[in-house]
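thread: overnight batch results

M.L. [08:02]
morning all. the overnight job finished for the chain we discussed friday. pasting input first so we're all looking at the same thing
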Amino acid sequence: MTVAPLAHVTRSGFLECVHHGAAVALDASGSAAVRVGDPSAVVLPRSSLKPVQLLAMLRAGVDLPGPQLALAAASHSGEPFHVEGVAAILRAAGLSEQDLRNTPDLPIEPGERLRWQCAGRAAVPMAQNCSGKHAAMLATCAANDWPLDSYLDPAHPLQRLVRETIAELTGEPVDVVAVDGCGAPAFGTTLDGLARAFATLARAEPGTPEARVAAAIREHPEYLGGTGRDVTALIRAVQGLIAKDGAEGVYAAALPDGRAAALKIADGAARARQPVMVALLRRLGVEEIADDLAHVAVLGHGEPVGEVTAAPFDRPDP
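M.L. [08:03]
and the structure it wrote out:
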């Protein structure tokens, strides 16, 4: 992947670090308003693809209320309402935590993680940030009488359907299949394709499975992320926005009219994602995002002494 500067890190007025990567922003017609680096290169979108994975599950007949749909597309923080939501998905399908095959972990929300540690609680699949997706995958398998034990196998009927759905929405073949951190297949696509997929979800007609995915994200962003999470704050800040963060510096977002953006920070730095996404959305004409979402503080002795901000973006090539 050809990369270009996406974010600057300053400390006490000194440019300390530059994060490189690739990004694309599409206008409502699908034309590129911004292209930085090479967004046509294949990347692993990781959890940014969860809304598309959820679409595949809805098409296969899984039926969940709005908060649980958002949780099925989430990288949640492991707060009590997240863990209970995962349990509810499993109970409704006649399943239990023992059916989950995702990697055990502690909550990622710092306060909740500390409470678990102080209580001597062990890492469990329910608390891991992908457990909502895994519970929904199991519920989908139960609804179709598909095997439960092998639902993470790329050859499983569910994962074949997910792969086909990703190819459909991105408009690209899925030629890269890896193993995600949670154990599920991680499918590759380009940032161009990821932006197109999010545009399709965001502008979907009411009543369609695509629109159900978008509505769940818009209406329940606290289930998609969690208290204090940047993706939750961004969705709340922009009317009609859908967005999803992913590991290793990936982020995708779209608006109801089809404007969309996707980015990948090449070194995987999560701190650069939000400032770059805000800059892309502003280039698409989104003006209501507060400046506190457009930068990340750099600390010195516990106090802000600098910030992470988006680098200037060149116009796309004609």
